[in-house]
Design a protein that fits this description.
Structural class: alpha+beta
Distance between the termini: 101 Å
CATH architecture of the largest domain: Sandwich
Radius of gyration: 29 Å
Number of strands: 25
Largest sheet: 10 strands, mixed
Shape: globular
Strand content: 25-35%
Helix content: 25-40%
């Protein structure tokens, strides 16, 4: 009996060992079979903001010169083949002016090496207006008014170069969950050290952890869980996504990063895209582009004109009495304590209060922030020069703005001015192109020229003879909807003055808060379509089709000049 029990025990032991061995072999086989798949790649787009290889500092502006210190383009001390931007002091503010708003991409990257404290600012146009996300050393995050402050857990003093990549949209939504980005407009920095390779990336990152979704799927990570973004994966993604120079990737498909070549043991290359995929992929429309040298000239001209305008403007000084309005309508009175590029400190009855530029009403901002007004005027003129260069090249005409098709109410249909139920939004690709000779001091309640044409933006019933023309404009708004950026109009209605047929556009608050570049392009697009509709309906000749953009309190903020319908303008602030 005892011998039988021992035999059974031995048999059970052998069976257990066999099962354990089989499980170990199966587990090893699964681990061996896991390798990044042959399609282990991710697509991305990259926009070079600054790489310092042009040898100059064109586009860089000192917005806070206390203490003074200009940016310098030098060879990197330990790598003479690479050029970097040297910043002089951590309290000095440096602003890199972008020639146009970058609409594609929400992932920013830069390299830096600073000896003392540093700050980085990325300013974006959003559905809440212009806001900045501020990156600082340490781990403390917070907010300054509506601007999020993000601690990067990086020391203030850096012995070696550090590469930072951040998802701007994720950083904004930590403070504003429903915010939408329309584009990146500015990059600013404070620091004593070196800065290089400022890039803007565009790829799919659903969970906001900076890892591309394609990369996460290929490495068996969860593209909806940001907690799996380990440092080794972040370093790998940064290494796999270099930014090509603009002239190399102009007109090409988005680069594909292939990590299979160094990860697959069998040595096979990934399969090329199928013919069906190539057929479905729409060819890119070729548009004229500036060369690297021309971009440098544009930046230099922008810097020169900015300095010229700034020297002619009055700067607020300490102790100067001032009164201004906030965007909410509140009136603030007091004496200027300190004014910078980003905020103004006012000494009032209750002490010193700081107001960021985003909270101040656009009509009162120029007298407190002359640098912003100078930059807007200089940018408008430089964009005009840029347009003339591209037109002479005649490679392709600028893309026609397309309008979001949504339900449109037409003023005068029922005796009142019907609001736009779902306000159309215009997406304007390309830079703002100001009209030469426009008086930027424009904007009055009523204006008139020598020919008897006058603008009166007060609400009125659209004449019956103009209703078909107005309906054509409404249909154009509906049929040409594209991606939504900001709402332009609340109501539209038409009037007649002498021989002119005038379309009045009651502007939405989101449109009024945009910069002059977008507002000018919007006004031009509406005026161009109004001319076409008037011509087809026989309502007016092209020179008699006027458009008036109306803001708060029935104030004219843009549109046609009374003397010339085609001379479209917009307030520069």
């Amino acid at each position: 009996m005892i011998r039988l029990d021992v035999g059974v025990l031995r048999m059970r032991t052998v069976l257990c060992c066999v099962l354990v061995f089989a499980q170990a072999v199966a587990l090893a086989a699964r681990r061996k079979s896991y390798r990044p798949r042959q399609r282990a790649a991710f697509r991305y787009r990259c926009e070079m903001i600054e790489d310092a290889e042009d040898g100059d500092t064109a586009g860089w502006i000192v917005f806070d010169a206390d203490p003074p210190g200009d940016p310098i383009n030098i060879a990197e001390p330990k790598n003479k083949t690479n050029r970097v931007i040297q910043l002089q002091h951590y309290q000095t503010g440096y602003h890199l002016a972008l020639p146009k708003m970058l609409k594609r991409g929400h992932i920013i990257q830069w390299r830096m090496k600073f000896r003392t404290n540093w700050y980085m600012y990325v300013t974006c146009q959003t559905n809440m207006g212009k806001l900045s996300v501020r990156y600082t050393p340490g781990t403390v995050s917070g907010r300054l008014a509506d601007d999020p402050i993000v601690g990067l857990d990086i020391p203030a003093a850096l012995k070696d170069w550090v590469t930072v990549r951040r998802n701007i949209l994720t950083d904004f939504r930590a403070l504003h969950p429903k915010i939408k980005l329309q584009g990146v407009t500015d990059f600013m920095a404070r620091g004593d050290g070196y800065l290089d390779d400022v890039f803007l990336y565009d790829y799919t990152d659903g969970d906001g952890d900076i890892l591309p979704d394609e990369y996460e799927k290929d490495h068996r990570l969860d593209p909806e869980d940001p907690r799996d973004a380990k440092p080794k994966h972040l370093e790998r993604v940064i290494a796999l996504s270099p930014c090509c120079p603009p002239e190399e990737d102009a007109g090409k498909e988005a680069p594909v990063v292939d990590e299979a070549a160094d990860a697959i043991n069998d040595g096979k290359r990934p399969k090329p895209p199928s013919t069906a995929d190539a057929v479905r992929r729409k060819p890119k429309k070729k548009t004229p582009k500036l060369t690297r040298e021309e971009k440098g000239q544009v930046r230099k001209e922008l810097q020169r004109r900015y300095a010229d305008y700034l020297s002619k403007l009055t700067h607020p000084k300490k102790g100067t009495p001032c009164t201004f309005r906030l965007r909410t309508g509140t009136v603030i009175s007091g004496a200027v304590e300190k004014a910078t590029h980003e905020s103004v400190r006012i000494r009032g009855d209750r002490g010193i209060v700081s107001f960021p530029v985003a909270r101040i009403h656009p009509d009162d901002a120029p007298k407190l922030f002359p640098k912003a007004k100078a930059h807007q005027k200089a940018l408008a003129e430089v964009e005009d020069i840029k347009k003339s260069v591209l037109d002479q090249r005649s490679v392709a005409r600028a893309p026609v703005p397309r309008v979001v098709p949504e339900a449109v109410g037409i003023g005068g249909e029922t005796g009142d001015n019907a609001p736009l139920e779902s306000t159309p939004t215009i997406d304007f690709a390309g830079p703002s192109l100001p009209v030469a000779g426009v008086d930027f001091g424009g904007g009055a309640e009523t204006s008139q020229n020598a020919g008897g044409i006058s603008y009166n933006p007060s609400r009125a019933i659209t004449p019956t003879s103009l209703k078909p023309t107005l309906a054509m404009v409404a249909k154009w708004l509906v049929d040409h909807r594209a991606e939504s950026t900001f709402r332009v109009a609340q109501r539209i209605y038409a009037k007649q003055s002498a021989s002119a047929v005038i379309l009045y556009v009651r502007c939405h608050a989101e449109f009024i808060d945009q910069d002059a570049a977008l507002r000018l392009n919007a006004s031009k697009a509406v005026q161009s379509e109004w001319v076409r509709c008037c011509g087809e309906a026989g309502s007016a000749a092209p020179g008699d089709a006027h458009v008036v953009m109306v803001g708060d309190a029935e104030r004219i903020i843009g549109g046609s000049q009374p003397s010339d319908a085609a001379a479209v303008w917009a307030l520069p602030y």
